[in-house]
Amino acid sequence: MGNLQELSDLKNTIKISARRFQESPFIERTNSPEMVRGVYAGRYFAMSIGEDPIKKYWLLRQKALIFDVPEKPIEISGPDASKFLDKVLTRKVSGIKEGRGYYSLACTPQGGIFMDGVLFKFNENKFWYVQADGPFEEWLLAHTSNFDVKISDPKSRVLQIQGPASIEIMKAASNGKIDENMPYFRSGFFDLGGQSLYISRTGFTNELGYEIYSDGFKTDHLALWDHLVKCGKPHGMEFSPTRAMTIRRIEGGIFGNLTDIDTTMNPFEAGLEFFVNMEKGDFIGRDALLDKDKRPCLFGLTCKTETPVSGSKVMDGKNIVGHMTAGIQSPTLQMGIGYVRFYQPNDWVGRELTIELPDGSSHKADIVNLPFFDHEKKIVKGIDRNIPVQPK
User: Fold this and answer.
1) Strand, coil or helix: 56
2) By three-state DSSP, how is residue 192 classified?
């Protein structure tokens, strides 16, 4: 089941008991009669509040947005925490430094991608894995046999402040303790308005940004929200649902678990070979990955005449060679873009193919490498601080 967020999904809604999933502790500050909620990792989040997503997109690229996101930290603790994570994750966990985030995958025994997320090390016996969508807590519990380890939910809710003004906003929010010297994918505890919270310089937009992790019931969530909004207001920061984030994450080549990657795709097919350490020793899925073709099958697609949508067929002549997992209209590139999953590895990049939309219309499309721009990630790393100009 994919966590789709295309335009049609904002109207294709149903009523459901509000107690079925976890409500956000910030909802008192963000709720509106127009809000359309999604569900991700068992948590509600705001997909839309009737906003203009393109206006929010340019605020993200030129100033800053604050997002109340549903990604879920899971705590792994105990004497065998490091050894256990080396078993269930594809990257080598032993040796990770404190205050350093590591993007890492968890595979099925068959080598498929079960989960992706970011791992943070608090100390030798305590880690947080910030998971994407899917039942990862249960997966971890199922593999704890013979390990002295505890899997728990710290009840942490995550906020993201993203955009070029995010450094100045976080500098104000932390009384100067967070500044330009905090590198990309670094993390630590900081005082925000009198509350000690875990902060990482990460995000889901490929823009300069930070993630703020609440400390469960110890955190005064509304006071935190008010503090951040007060610090962000002079810089033009606004709250946004996730539509603007979805547009920007696709431009930035960031995949969504269960939508773009899933258990039927291995890390090599997804182009994520860098995050698999085959030399570290045994881990779940390693044996299955030994003989896999390492050529990727997931690429970008651009279309000048229409916006791709998930499920669209990608044709090479009369042959169906792949399908779209996600698509949006790129405000920066001013064309339709999205991810195409090919059924077989090949020299796809540089090819002109045809995309067939669900309405039956066909359009020429080009296959490109990801991300769609800023290949060296200079924006998210803070190297390129230029403010983009909105095309007329």
Assistant:
1) helix
2) strand
Token readout for 340 is: 């195409």
Burial class (CB in 10 A: 0-12, 13-18, 19+), 303: buried
Q: What is the CATH number of the domain that holds 92?
A: 3.30.1360.120
56 or 5: which carries more pLDDT confidence?
Answer: 56
162: Cβ contacts below 8 Å, ≥ 6 apart: 60, 64, 65, 67, 203, 204, 205, 207, 208, 209, 210, 245
**DSSP per-residue letters across 85-154:** HHHHSSS--TTPPTTBEEEEEEE-TTS-EEEEEEEEEEETTEEEEEE-SS-HHHHHHHT-TT---EEE--
Angle subtended by helix axes 166-173 and 221-232, to nearest 10: 130
- Separation of alpha carbons 303 and 335, rounded Å: 6
385 inside domain: no
What are the tens digits of pLDDT across the range 84-121? 999 999 999 988 999 999 999 999 999 999 999 999 99
The residue among 166, 213, 187 whose CA lies nearest residue 379 is: 166
Number of domains in the chain: 2
* Residue that has been written with the tokens 């608090």 in this structure: 122
Separation of alpha carbons 328 and 347, rounded Å:
24
For 392, residues 6+ apart whose C-beta sits below 8 A from its C-beta are: none
288 three-class SS: helix
pLDDT of residue 1: 46
Statement to judge: residues 52 and 161 lie in one domain: yes
113-147 pLDDT, tens digit each: 999 999 999 999 999 999 999 999 999 999 999 99
Q: Which of 116, 157, 352, 379 minimizes the C-alpha distance to 248?
A: 379
Please state the pTM of the whole predicted model: 0.94
Q: Which of 186, 246, 194 is nearest to 218 (CA)?
A: 194
Q: Name which of 158, 139, 171, 168 is nearest 204 in CA terms.
A: 158
Structural domain that includes position 305: 297-373
